[in-house]
Amino acid sequence: MTDRSDRSIRNQWGRISAHLLGGVPLILLGWQLVQGRLGFNPVESVLRWTGRLALGLLLLSLSVTPIRKIFKISAISAMRKPLGLYAALYAFLHFSVFALWDYQLNIRQIYLEISNKPFILLGMIALLILLVLAATSFRFWQRKLGRKWVWLHRSVYAAALLVILHYLLAVKGDLFSLQGAYAPPLIAAGILVLLLILRIPAIQQCLRPTFTQQEPDQPASD
């Protein structure tokens, strides 16, 4: 009974940490917007920060399972779902700022912008995937879909790849000569590759500290 109580407390702290990571930046961004501290182009500032937060939280959510399996920190599992939901929220806000604030939902202008900048379409596809995953993240869908749910939620890696491509193509400059702010999306791409490598069971076994106590693996959704 004590072990179950301790596990519940650790899970609560994991969820609280995830809500702090996801919620505090949103509060700070809203406060700066109300105070008019986002510079001469607040639309661009909000677009930049919501996009970066969406990508950062998405990568953090994907890192939960490898960390849990390698270091046997079971409590960290409670962070995965809220971090993923916050990533979807920031991605939705990112697109909403573009469509509603910047273009006032002018469908023709939005269509022309997408035609001239195909990277926007990549971001929209990633957003659609994240919204589907957010909508099906509840236990009802997990029970209803069974193993299909696991495979569906592994598409989060496709969403992460699309977000990074969206970010890379949105940067103004020359990617081949690295003239431009390409460091953040390239670092994100490196982190995503690392997370994919860490999903390989043999790699996990090599990296897993020998002094950690073995625990049964849980079904991974990411």
Q: What secondary-structure arrangement, pairings included, does this model have?
A:
Layout lengths: L1 H34 L6 H30 L8 H23 L4 H10 L2 H17 L3 H7 L1 H7 L2 H15 L12 H16 L2 H7 L15
Helix pairs in contact: 1-2, 1-3, 2-3, 2-8, 2-9, 3-5, 5-8, 6-7, 8-9
Characterize the structure shown:
The protein is mostly helical and 222 residues long. It contains ten helices and no strands. Residues 213-221 have low confidence and may be disordered.
Radius of gyration: 19 Å
C-alpha geometry? globular
Our estimate of the beta-strand percent is under 5%
Strand element count: 0
The CA-CA distance between the termini, in Å, is 30 Å
Class from secondary-structure proportions: mainly alpha
Instruction: Tell me the number of structural domains.
Output: 1
Q: Quickly count the helices.
A: 10
Indicate the mean pLDDT: 87
Largest sheet: none
**Succession of helices and strands:** HHHHHHHHHH
Residue share in helices?
over 70%
Uncertain ranges? 213-221
